[in-house]
Amino acid sequence: MAIASVQVNDVGLNSLDYVNTILFSFPGKAKLAAKRAGRRAGNAGRTEAKKYVVPKYNIKAGQFTSNTKTSVQVEGGSGGVVGVKITYSGSRLAVLEFRPNVSKESGVTYQAKRGVDEKLPHAFDVKAYNGHIYQRTGRKRFPIMKQVDRATPHMLKDHSVADPLGKRIMEVFNQRLQHEIGYILGKA
């Protein structure tokens, strides 16, 4: 399982210190507001990243979304929120997901990243096991191992994806934090 993460420690009007100050008299509400804002920002970031990953990698938008999970961790003690960590995780994708070309002479060729051919010269497909791509792990016939490539969080670490992702997360986090503060103060 691969992991990519974004840390939120903002300063200014939308900062976590501002939230701690405003919601000081409401115990636990600063963490709640930060967690809710982080969850919305993480999901918006995943959607934003999809726009940059799909043209660059040979993956469908639905595959990217369904294989990328978001989790939010709020750091802080009784004094309030110190930081928010948004983590993206996902398992490695099978080579079969990248539409491989199987040949008895040259093995398996596939493109995980568009325009970049990757070869597995000794790999083969097995119809009996859902058509996945396998490769022998030794000289004997068995055991064989299913071939996998990168995970979706690895795709998020590319600079052309990470920069817009971080920007979108901060933008949505700040908007949602203001919304959550207003919601909590309105209920009081």
TL;DR of this structure?
With 188 residues, the protein is an alpha+beta fold. It has helices at 16-22, 29-56, 61-67, 152-156, 159-187; strands at 2-8, 69-77, 80-90, 92-94, 101-103, 107-110, 118-120, 123-125, 133-136, 144-146, 148-151. The chain is 40% helix and 29% strand.
Main-sheet strand order equals: 1-3-2
Q: Are there runs of 5+ residues with pLDDT below 50, and where?
A: none
Overall pLDDT level: 87
Helix proportion range: 40-55%
Helix and strand content put the structural class at alpha+beta
Shape: elongated
Terminal CA distance? 42 Å
Radius of gyration: 22 Å
Largest sheet composition: 3 strands, antiparallel
- Total beta strands: 11
SS field, number of helical segments: 5
- What is the chain-wise order of helices and strands? EHHHEEEEEEEEEEHH
% residues in beta strands = 25-35%
| Whole-number total of structural domains | 2
Detailed description of the structure:
There is one protein chain. By secondary structure, the protein is an alpha+beta fold. It has 2 domains: 2-91 and 152-187; 94-149, no CATH class. It contains 5 helices and 11 strands. α2 runs antiparallel to α5 (159-187). The protein is elongated. The mean pLDDT is 87.
Characteristic terms for this protein:
alpha+beta, 188 residues, 40% helix, 5 helices, three-stranded antiparallel beta sheet, 11 strands, 2 domains
Secondary-structure map:
Blueprint (H helix, E strand, L loop, with lengths): L1 E7 L7 H7 L6 H28 L4 H7 L1 E9 L2 E11 L1 E3 L6 E3 L3 E4 L7 E3 L2 E3 L7 E4 L7 E3 L1 E4 H5 L2 H29 L1
Antiparallel strand pairs: 1-3, 2-3, 4-11, 5-6, 6-7, 8-9, 9-10
Helix pairs in contact: 2-5
